[in-house]
Amino acid sequence: MENILDIKNLRKEFGGFTLDNISFALPRGYIMGFIGPNGSGKTTTLKLIMNLMRADAGTIEVFGQDHIRFEREIKQRIGFVYDEPVYYENLSIRRMTGLISPFYAKWDQSLYEDYLRRFELNADQKIKTLSKGMRTKYALALALSHGAELLIMDEPTAGLDPVFRRELLDILLDVMQREENSILFSTHITSDLDRVADYITFIDRGKIVLSQDKDSLYEQYVLVKGGPGDLTDALRRELIGVTVSAHGFEGLASHPVQGEGLLLDKPSLEDIMFFHTRGDRHGA
User: Fold this and answer.
1) Could you tell me how far CA 92 lies from the centroid of its own chain?
2) What distance lies between CA 184 and its chain's CA centroid?
3) Distance CA 132, CA 88 (A)
4) d(Cα 284, Cα 194) in Å, to the nearest integer?
5) How many helices and strands, by DSSP H and E, does the chain display?
6) Residue pLDDT, tens place only, 16-40
7) Which residues lie closer than 8 Å to 252 by C-beta, 6 or more apart?
8) Which residues contact 147 (CB under 8 A, 6 or more apart)?
9) Could you read off the pLDDT of 204-242 as tens digits, one per residue?
10) 284 falls in which pLDDT band (50, 70, 90)?
């Protein structure tokens, strides 16, 4: 299987934070959810991919090419949607696009105008008047209008209302109708990925916790629930993380566990992320 993105032993140290020799790969034709708590290293990783900062060690290949040596060629084939896109606030959408579009050899003006209509964006509206959702729509219209094969999105649904979040996910599924496209979708809103992601890469405190296809991930973990007296010391040692209250406990295990009175359930992505990052701190 061809990888559209391949990261090996990537390391970056700054400001007391370390991205610690991370490795993962995104196969062509799939959506990868890149999840983790705020401050875990998601945005740093994306900036390194886009060559907005330099790594201390490791390699990044995009389309099978070194991301520094072939930066110009690679960026012609990437669409990047930031959490907070930076535009000239006093320009209209039309004038802003006029500054950006000449940089792309495969810019498709007709396709761009189709996206403006679909997203209900007025080309004469000034950037400073756009809401968070409208800015995200505009950034996405730009990213999708120059033949990008890899779409990289940094927290694109943060702060958006549920209606537009659903619309955005539908757009991404539509983009994936072309099997050569891939999407790297960074978010801490894991429910967005339950519907669209094929692969999940989970990063915490600068380290990769897991990176695998979503179906096998769900099969690997089990959510364990029980009453106050069911959490024995032996069971606690089998759990990755646990929360305890007066009414009982809830924990995550990486294999089926046995015990009278226990309830086993399928965890969500949010459960998996929570118990890996916070569960132990909540345990008694």
Assistant:
1) 29
2) 6
3) 15
4) 30
5) 11, 14
6) 899 999 999 999 999 999 999 888 9
7) 221, 222, 223, 224, 239, 240, 241, 242, 267, 271, 272, 275, 276, 279
8) 77, 104, 106, 108
9) 999 999 999 999 999 999 999 999 889 999 999 999 999
10) very low
| Entry pTM | 0.89
Token readout for 24 is 């993962």
SS3 7: strand
Residues 211 and 202 sit within 8 Å (Cβ to Cβ): yes
Cβ atoms of 96 and 129 within 8 Å: the answer is no
Residue 108 CA to residue 101 CA, distance in Å, equals 9
Residues 6+ apart with CB under 8 A from 225: 248, 249, 250, 251, 262, 263, 264, 265
* Cβ neighbours for 89, distance < 8 A, ≥ 6 positions apart: 126, 127, 128
Span between the terminal Cα atoms of the chain, in Å: 45
- Choose among 211, 223, 217, 214: nearest CA to 256: 223
The answer to whether 17 and 196 have CB atoms below 8 angstroms apart is no
Three-class DSSP labels, 55-121: CCEEEEEECCEECCCCHHHHHCCEEEECCCCCCCCCCEHHHHHHHHHHHCCCCCHHHHHHHHHHCCC
- Cα angle 177-182-113, degrees, rounded to a multiple of 5: 60
Q: For the CA atoms of the chain, what is the radius of gyration?
A: 21
Distance set, CA 100 to CA 50, 83, 92, 264 (Å): 17, 18, 13, 52
Q: Is the distance from CB of 152 to CB of 33 less than 8 angstroms?
A: no
Q: Are 145 and 107 in contact (CB under 8 A)?
A: yes
Sign, CA torsion 189/194/197/202: positive
- Amino acid occupying residue 202: F
